[in-house]
Design goal:
One of its GO terms (molecular function) is galactokinase activity. It is built from twelve helices and twelve strands. It has 383 residues and is an alpha+beta fold. It has two domains: 204 residues, Ribosomal Protein S5, domain 2 (2-Layer Sandwich); 167 residues, 2-Layer Sandwich (Alpha-Beta Plaits). Strand 3 and strand 4 form a beta hairpin. Helix 2 packs across helix 5 and helix 4 crosses helix 6. The longest helix has 22 residues.
Amino acid sequence: MTAAGAERRAAAGFRAVYGGAPDGIWAAPGRVNLIGEHTDYNEGLVLPLALEQRTLVAAAARRDGLLRLYSARLGGEVISLRVAELAPGAVKGWAAYPAGVCWALREAGVTAAAGGADVFVESEVPLGAGLSSSAALEVATALALGGSPLSGPELALLAQRAENEFVGVPCGVMDQMAAACCTAGHALLLDTRDLGMRQVPLELAGLRLLVVDTGVRHALADGAYAERRAGCAKAARALGVRALRDITPAQLPAALGALTPGLRPLVRHVVTENQRVAETAALLEAGEVREAGPLLTAGHHSLRDDFAVSCPELDLVVATAGAAGALGARMTGGGFGGSAVVLVAEARAAAVGRAVDEAFRNAGYGAPRVFTVGAGSGAGRVG
């Protein structure tokens, strides 16, 4: 679907459901994280890029304190809520994400949110694929409900608060920052400790960046993500540091020796992954994107072996892509399913896609979805 087509569909859908025209349409992208997984809540470095696939929110303000939410993709019925009654844990399912944003805006003193709104959601971002459909929905909703005067980082922090406190998912801020702050043609080098960021050119001439959606769906609220985060926090306390970000590669051997066996792999992943992010960003800035391939694959092995958040389907994508001539590949997102990202020479992209499809078929898995991605723009008003 073209950008204009998605916007027309959102406007038409709003009219069909609510009987009038929206005040506007706002959009935020999904993201693929090139490298830097499970480092954001450890105050480390990440390197995401915005997808061209977006979530669009058409909205019209109300004055009666009623928040009405609709998505054909997520239930197909209008969910009506009272803004004054919104509280953490009070809303379940997909509606908790936009409702949580409305709550966070109200808590932040954004008066426009208190009156309520009619909201229609149209999304191109695959759900549960590790491409941050939730953050795209949160940031687009924040803009639609009156958050436009906020800066990109302020929007991201507000959306993160909604997901942490209202929905109950202890995510870091990377996904929301990518949705709010990325620029086209660039990856975002983000320091999650102070939200310092640098737009890093992503020159893909002669290369392709593929996303392979395994079809294995995950839910970060199921506890496994929270367990990893709690383990990292426990390790930081044991080492006497504010966050695992503070452990340097040179300090890693001593740090591992001071920890119980169960915490060592978590720390090893975080410390080495931060180093891989820094090295990858330097390669991108030098125009040597293809040299980053081995770093992507090393990151996957660390996520698989140390952090234990991969799955057989993701491992199969990475192994098959490498054998078929890809420059590098890794799982992207929180793990336990979702997608992998593959860096490949343009001339080998089709062959890699066919090899992955055949490998899934031979393994008895459902067909994966393989598509090319580019570095898109961050959130904004589109209609």
